[in-house]
């Protein structure tokens, strides 16, 4: 235990990213425990999160209390602990006979964190902590540094995971979660979603990524196998004709072009998905349709018409989802300077007992005023 105590003394401090205890020996106590630093009223504390079936228990500790807790849990409750710090990581394994094996190594970190002043953005995935799928996709180097031309992508991935973190409580905790990712492309965010939900959150999850490019799908399946992501699969297919699912818990559609987003939303509504995340792009349909005498002085400018049409498209999509029983938000996905495709539609299905919002008539009147008939409207009319 002396070696363990010495390690914990060195690594459980302001540079800690997280410690995750797993391989439980006492299912009544919990499946796993996560320890991470938090700032409470300006003071550095360490929050333990214990996962017991569908329940979650939180407790705050001083650094000394956190070290003592981890030591006690490894002695009595768990056989494995993964500790990630900004400049060091460690793996602790406990055999059935109680023998402890500790492997520790230094890691590179180019962005020091100062929690006491809250100066650094607290990303879910940390720079300096290598993650296999990020290395495989070229976002990180093997020692965890972010590739020079991939920092915007790294920020985008973390921003996306924040949106998922916000809706975790809306997803079932029991049983297997099923997620469909339409138009997954190179699948940076698909891999991130699987890693976050399955590896970090411990959820039983199955994710299917769909895209038209066979070579991209092949590479994604190869990387998923390389990472050992057994329930992450990719297949070639078209959003509009995809069939074969009875129910899906979450539907994701990121940068599906023009009306492909509408087909993805219609599929999600048909499955009764609990959560929908969509980042539309190339909203050309309404740009071709929109005709409004009262707005003619504004729409005569091509770039203004294009941008207004894109915003109106997504506002109508959000309104149509509200009519289908979803609470819908339109949020900034990433700063405009990094990509013009920066709006995310996030829809969470309301409980059946809640009153349906009466927005139908005004939305229909608005579409008539603008002279538009969007694809999603007539797709949902067929439901």
Strand content: 25-35%
How widely separated are the two ends? 63 Å
Overall mean confidence score, pLDDT: 86
Helical content (DSSP H or I, runs of 4+): 25-40%
Please count the helical segments. Answer: 12
* pLDDT < 50 stretches: 109-120, 335-339
Major sheet characteristics: 7 strands, antiparallel
Q: In total, how many beta strands?
A: 14
The 3D shape can be described as elongated
Quaternary assembly: single chain
Q: Within the largest sheet, what's the order of strands?
A: 4-3-2-1-5-6-7
What radius of gyration results from the CA coordinates? Answer: 24 Å
Q: Decide which structural class fits the backbone.
A: alpha/beta
Order of helices and strands: HEEEEHEEEHHEHEHEEHEHHHEEHH
Q: What's the layout of helices and strands?
A:
Blueprint: H1 2-11, E1 16-24, E2 32-40, E3 43-52, E4 55-61, H2 63-76, E5 78-85, E6 88-94, E7 100-106, H3 132-136, H4 151-166, E8 177-182, H5 188-200, E9 205-211, H6 214-227, E10 232-236, E11 250-257, H7 260-271, E12 275-281, H8 285-289, H9 296-299, H10 302-323, E13 326-332, E14 343-349, H11 360-370, H12 375-381
Parallel strand pairs: 8-9, 8-11, 9-10, 11-12
Antiparallel strand pairs: 1-2, 1-5, 2-3, 3-4, 5-6, 6-7, 12-14, 13-14
